[in-house]
Amino acid sequence: MKRFFACVALALALVGAAAKEAAPLAEDPVVEKRLIAISEELRCLVCQNESLAGSRADLANDLRRELRTLIGQGKTDAQIREFMVSRYGDFVLYRPPVKPQTWLLWAGPFVLMLVGVIVLVVYVRRRRAEPAAAPLTEEEARRAQALLEVSEP
């Protein structure tokens, strides 16, 4: 009886694992390619680390549907991106434009790397500038030896 329930449980588990072919995003293959190309350039606003093409969030599905509608209306790729930016801001773009609001975003990594190199150079120079330990004078050597002899049993 246990074997029967184990087989039924295994069969039910495998039903959910059956692979399905992805449904096309659009009827026309040209429109589908264009939709995928545009949606790969746009960020999912829910997932934030995925493109609109790869996200499975409900909002991403809605936005893909909106893209499909805009493509159907004959809008160009630039017009579609402009529409998305006007609606959701530059954050929706994976590569935001270079403008005063995004200068820190574009220059930040280079500035941080430059600061790191400067800190490293200063550190290395200071390490080299430290004088080597001076040898002990005769008096210091005698005192050290006396201390060692006292501490030994």
Automatic annotation (TrEMBL):
Pfam families, alphabetized: CcmH
GO CC annotations on file: plasma membrane
Membrane spanning residue stretches: 103-124
Assigned keywords, A-Z: Cytochrome c-type biogenesis, Heme, Iron, Membrane, Metal-binding, Signal, Transmembrane, Transmembrane helix
Signal peptide region: 1-22
Function: Possible subunit of a heme lyase.
Family from the record: Belongs to the CcmH/CycL/Ccl2/NrfF family.
Name recorded for this polypeptide: Cytochrome c-type biogenesis protein
